[in-house]
Amino acid sequence: MNTKPEKPIQMVDLKGQYAKIKEEVDAGIRQVIDNTAFIGGPAVNGFQKNLETYLGAQHVIPCANGTDALQIALMALGLQPGDEVIVPAFTYVATAEVIALLQLKPVMTDVDRHTFNLTADIIEQAVTPRTKAVVPVHLFGQSCDMAPIMEVAHKHKLWVVEDNAQAIGADYTFPDGRVQKTGTIGHIGCTSFYPSKNLGCYGDGGAISTNDDELAAKIRMIANHGQSRRYYHDIVGVNSRLDGIQAAVLDVKLKRLDQYAQARQKAAAYYDAAFGDLPQVVIPARQPNSTHVFHQYTLLIKDGRRDALQDFLQENGIPSMIYYPVPLYKQQAFENSVGVNLEKMPATDYLCSVVLSLPMHTELDEKMLRYITQAVKRFFAH
Predict the structure, then answer these.
(1) What strand order describes the sheet that includes 159-163?
(2) Helix (H) or strand (E) holding 160
(3) pLDDT in tens, 83-101
(4) pLDDT, tens digit, for every residue of 138-152?
(5) Given a cut of 90, is residue 4 above it in pLDDT?
(6) Which residue, 23, 52, 14, 48, is CA-closest to 247?
(7) Is the pLDDT confidence value at 366 over 60?
(8) Domain with CATH 3.40.640.10 in the chain
(9) What is the pLDDT of residue 342?
(10) For residues 355 and 307, what is the distance between their CA atoms, to the nearest angstrom?
(11) What's the CATH superfamily of 257-381?
(12) Contact 179, 172 (CB under 8 A)
């Protein structure tokens, strides 16, 4: 008999994670309040430096959220209305949303059906004389194959803006053996600190990383009303800042980010072992030259049984999510966008019909994992 765990199973257990770091987090928040350094100040500066060290990036510019990070990054590149930006159709809306918002042309492409990511070949097929940038998304926690992507970008003189919102902490290994963190390989990297992310704060937050001094200076200006010194506005910018309280939370969590990744990887290994011999289920593929930090653990469910499995799990107290049920190129928001590439995207369409993400977080224990995996097996045994 598969006994249900005492604690409710959640997609993400932020409360359980907080309980283990409560003392440090509370002390950090209290210090910000005592200092009344709510915007900028020591907590933000300290976190920025620590994240630069962790990523191996020359510059990290904290901002208000991951969507702002993407928008500010694109604003820094000096693109003109109508310029094309290549983006996967299988991702969260924010990646394409900011492109359209800036009156650029989001050219949506298919993805690799195994890794869910853009590839160099897919990008090359989408390049036109108007293409100026590409936004590879490291979906669900592992890197796109960046070495050939950077070669294509160099060949066609394209900017590369990495969407690293789901893969912070992942390592990419180049053919020559060099290892870099995702978010530091392209010209600019963007991440989100939304609470459910692998490195999440207790509100909204984001950051932009780059190794280019000129880009860093421009990004800082854009994020701060286009000013390099107070009340002198050289360009039109935005107001996008990480607050001190969120920085204090993030600094505590950053020290444990690798430990958190290991907990996720351990849970993923348990899932892999349980589902490896189920013919109706495909476990997540691994990119051979990237570690996987498992923002999501996403199965492919065959034979049109995905929705029935989700209902069955819900009946048994097990949450699951479909990331993403509708591809970006079919979203109403982009219906009249001149930038949508309306060619068929078989991999994207297929994935939207079969993907199912199971609970994945740092607090999953063996009892929870056993209950989840046995429920999936029981469903397919019928």
Answers:
(1) 59-63, 206-210, 188-192, 159-163, 131-134, 84-88, 105-109
(2) strand 159-163
(3) 999 999 999 999 999 999 9
(4) 999 999 999 999 999
(5) no
(6) 48
(7) yes
(8) 16-254
(9) 57
(10) 10
(11) Aspartate Aminotransferase, domain 1 (3.90.1150.10)
(12) yes
Ranges for all domains in the chain classified under CATH 3.90.1150.10: 257-381
Q: What is the DSSP string of 275-311?
A: HTT-TTEEPPP--TTB-B--S-EEEEE-TT-HHHHHH
Classify 36 in phi/psi space as left (phi over 0), alpha (psi -120 to 50) or beta.
Answer: left
Amino acid found at 142? Q
Q: Report phi then psi at 180, rounded to 5.
A: -135, 150
**Positive or negative torsion for Cα 24, 25, 28, 31:** negative
Distance separating alpha carbons of residues 336 and 322, to the nearest angstrom: 26
User: What pTM was computed for the model?
Assistant: 0.97
Give the fold, CATH level 3, of 16-254: Aspartate Aminotransferase; domain 2 (3.40.640)
pLDDT tens column, 334-346: 887 755 665 679 9
The H-assigned helical ranges of the chain are 14-35, 41-55, 66-75, 94-101, 120-126, 146-156, 213-223, 244-254, 257-275, 306-315, 346-354, 366-381
**The residue type at 9:** I
Q: Which residues pair with 331 in a beta bridge?
A: none
Mean pLDDT of 67-88: 97
Q: With the CA atoms of 261, 263, 267 and 272 taken in that order, what torsion angle do they form, in degrees rounded to the nearest 10?
A: 50
Q: Is 375 helix (H, G, I), strand (E, B) or coil?
A: helix
Structure tokens at 223: 């994020």
Q: CA–CA separation, 206 vs 264, rounded Å?
A: 22
Crossing angle, helix 41-55 and helix 244-254, to 10 degrees? Answer: 30
